[in-house]
Amino acid sequence: MRFDWKKALRAAVFMSAIIIFYGGLLFLLILFGSLGAFPVYITKTITFAGGATLLIFLVAASGYLGKPDLKWLKWLTLVVCILAAVYAAWGAYKESIPTVDDRGALLWEYRPFDPESKVVCLDEPSTLQFDLNTACRLRLDGATALYPVYSAFVQAVFPDGRRDSPYTYVAACTNTVNAYESLIHREVDMIFAAAPSQAQLDAAEQAGMELHLTPIGREAFVFFVNSKNPVTGLTVEEIQKIYTGEITNWKEVGGRNQRIRPFQRAENSGSQSALERLMEGLPLMKPEEEDRISGMDGIIRQVANYRNYKNALGFSFRFYAAEMVADDQIRLLSINGVEPTKETIRSGAYPISSEFYAITAAPAGQPAPEENLSRLSDFLEWILSEQGQEIIEKTGYVALHG
Asked: If we measure between CA atoms, which residue out of 128, 125, 153, 130 comes closest to residue 141?
């Protein structure tokens, strides 16, 4: 049989066009998906459907050379479309279930100096007032769950950021993990967070830095479930057994016959570190993961956000869970029979309450960066004063005294 160069050329041109078209489509999909333009399930659905369709067209293009029977292609295409539709429907259902994730909190609602902000105010002028030069030299960061309180500190003590634009970038909120990293590398002067994890302490030591923790208030570490879950409380021992995988069904703790779906948080986050301390050295089960789009890295696997399934169990800090994401679809659990309230935190009756801190770092043996030592000392002293503690109470946390 004589080779037909014309048919071969047409096939090559056709296949090249298909590859360029679908390759470009998938590249743009991943590009815009990585920028947050598409949910992950849509990105993956179109990627799957596009890739499968590309393969089908390549097979069809090869028919130019031999002209095989390609009737089966229409059935293959139909199967691909059905699978893509099923996956997309499952993704849409999953996305419709509410999540609790303090990384996505509406921090703009607590911006200082904004007339519409929820940030609390003192009834009288602050006894400490920084000028613009001092304010611009003090760089702050911290945990998302504590942003409402240190944003209030900033509004009370610092100059008005609406009038003094250089101040705007002084107080950041990049979350616990990033805040500790920035502090250790001396990119910020003070952070507000829960106690550091062992990994964060090790990182500071390796960098030749020492962390200085000043307790400024108290907060409860809380667990929550879907509001339709009949379980209203757990013991510390039950929580430990759930997160080691020893208890796997809600019926073992007085609930329905459903598998427990215990969510965790990213390593070194404030709430995950709190869980690790609660476990007292017991091994944590592997956390649930999910696909996410992360910048130009495309789709990656990360620890899943809490998703409010009927069988889910999640955790956070009380103020964030009860105030920042007030939601009648979740219910806070009592622990050892004690509800997490300001009164039980203050009295110590709630078993897993702890202090939160204003944290500085300096080379080992030094109290603080020399150029900001006086400013930081004045700021810490004011935070511990009656006015600073009043802000902590008015925001919704528990002051150290009063």
From this structure: 153
105 and 226 part of one domain? yes
Domain's final residue, options 96, 117, 141: 96
Phi, then psi, of 307 in degrees rounded to 5? -120, 130
Q: Are residues 109 and 250 in the same domain?
A: yes
Does one domain contain both 257 and 294? yes
pLDDT, tens digit only, all 402 positions of the chain: 455 566 656 666 666 666 666 666 666 655 555 444 455 556 666 666 666 666 666 566 555 445 555 565 566 666 766 776 676 666 666 766 767 655 445 677 888 888 888 899 999 999 999 887 776 778 899 988 899 999 999 999 988 765 554 444 467 888 888 999 999 999 999 999 999 989 999 999 999 999 999 999 999 999 999 989 999 999 999 999 999 999 999 999 999 999 999 999 888 788 888 899 999 999 999 988 765 544 444 555 566 778 888 999 999 888 877 765 555 788 899 999 999 999 999 999 999 988 999 999 988 766 555 556 678 889 999 999 999 999 999 998 999 975
Give pTM, 2 decimals. Answer: 0.72
**Total tally of structural domains belonging to the chain:** 2
Helix (H) or strand (E) segment spanning residue 182:
helix 176-184
Q: Which domain holds residue 118?
A: 100-402
- 61 and 122, same domain (yes or no): no
Strand runs labelled E in 280-371? 289-293, 299-303, 306-307, 312-317, 330-332, 334-335, 353-363
Do 26 and 121 sit in the same domain of this protein? no
Contact residues for 72 (Cβ-Cβ < 8 A; gap 6+): none
In a shared domain, residues 270 and 233: yes
